[in-house]
Amino acid sequence: MIERRTFLSMLTATATALVLPGCATPRTYEPVEPVTLTKGPYLLILDATTASLRFETREDLPVQIQIIGPEGIVHGTARRRAEHVGLPWGMEISGNPLDEEGEHVLHEIVLTDLTPGATYRWRLQASPDVVKSGRFRAPPSPTSSTVVAFIADTMYPSSAGVAAMLASHEPEVVVHGGDIQYRTNPADTWNGFFLAMEPLLALGPYQACFGNHELDEPEEAEYYFDRLWAGQGASSTPRYHAIPWGPLLLLCLDSETSDLGDPQSPQVAWAHQTLAEAREKGLHPVLFFHRPTYTLSKYGPRNLNARQVVHDLATTYDCPAVLAGHVHGYERFEVDGIVYLIDGGGGALLTNLEERRDEIEDARPGEPDLRQVAHRSFGGTILRVDDGTLRIERYELDGTLTDQVDITL
Known about the structure:
Layout: H1 4-9, E1 17-19, E2 37-47, E3 50-57, E4 64-69, E5 72-77, E6 79-85, E7 102-111, E8 119-127, E9 130-137, E10 146-151, H2 158-167, E11 173-176, H3 190-196, H4 198-201, E12 206-208, H5 220-229, E13 241-245, E14 248-252, H6 266-280, E15 284-289, H7 305-316, E16 321-324, E17 330-335, E18 338-343, H8 357-363, E19 371-375, E20 379-386, E21 389-396, E22 401-408
Parallel strand pairs: 10-11, 11-12, 14-15, 15-16, 16-18
Antiparallel strand pairs: 1-5, 2-3, 3-7, 4-5, 4-8, 6-7, 8-9, 10-20, 13-14, 17-18, 17-19, 20-21, 21-22
C-alpha cells in the first residue's frame, strides 16, 4: 500500500497536496503556459508493484497531473528529460501529426508500492482545451482473472480501427508485437501511432516488443523505441523484458537485435532465469516476440536455430502459448501441445499466407499440417484468463470472432 510519504515522493517538489478519498473533487488546471502534447500519456509496468506514467511534449515546461488511487488523490508535476530527436518522421501529405526534428521532452511519474489489482486513475491538462485521462490496474495477484490484448504491425490508417476494436474488450494490459511504424508508409508517424492507440492507452499499461521496422533508419531505435520504452519490466534493455500479470508472466523477447538463435546468448540466459523464477512462483509464462518461428507465408524461417531455442524455452517452462507478429494476417499452429499464434494484423498491408507452403512441405514434410487456422485480415488478439483456463480469441477489424482456443493452465 502506498504510504503518504512514498506517494508524494513519486512527484517532484512541485507536488501540491495529498487529499484523502472523499474529501475533494478533481481540479481543473489552467497552465501558466500551455504545452504541445505529442505522445501519450501511456503507462508501462516496471515490476509487480511499480509503474511509469509517461508523455511527451515539445516545450520543457511543467504539466499538472492528478493521480487517484485507493490511497487518495495526488496533484503534482512529473520529472522531465529533454532530448534532441534528430530523425523527423512522416510527410506533409499524411493525415497524422508529423514527428519533427528538435528538442522533445519526456515527462515521467514513477508510481511505487502499488496495491496489487487496485485501480488507479490519472488526468492531465496540457492546455485549457487539451485534457487527457485514463485508468490502469496495478498488476493483479496470481489468483485473479485478467484480459490481455495483443496487437502488432501497426500502420496508418487501419491501426486506429484495430485499436478501437480491441479496446471494446477492455483489456487490462496491451502487448505490442513490434513494427510500430513503417518508414515505407509516408502516412505513418510515431506521433500518429500514439494518437491511434489512445483508446488502449487509456485502459492500462502498454508494453512493447522490438520489431524489424524499428530499424528502418539507423537512429530510429535510439530516438523512438529505446527512448520511449526504456525501463519496461525493470529490464536493463527495453528490447526484452517481462512483467507478472495475474496468473501469467508476459515475457517479450527481441528477435531482431539480440541473438535469439544462440542458446548461450545473454538474452536466452536471462529468459531461462526469468522463466524458472516465474514457474517457482506458480506463474504461467506466455512468450511474445516479433519474427515468428512458424508461418507458411514468405516470412517462414530459413534459419531454424531461433525456432529451436524458443521451443526449448516453451517446453522446458510449460508455456501455454507463444505469440508473434511480422506476418500481416493471422495464423495458429499447434506444436507439441504449445499454441503458436501469429497475428500481425494491426494495420500493415496484408501478407499472402500460403506463399511458401509448398517450399516448406518439401523441406520439412508435414509442417504445414501443424497450422490449424489462417485468416488474411486485419485484427488483433485477446487473451482471457479465468478459473484456470487461458482462452485466446482472434477478432477481425469489424469485431468478428474468427478463432478461439481454450488452454487449461
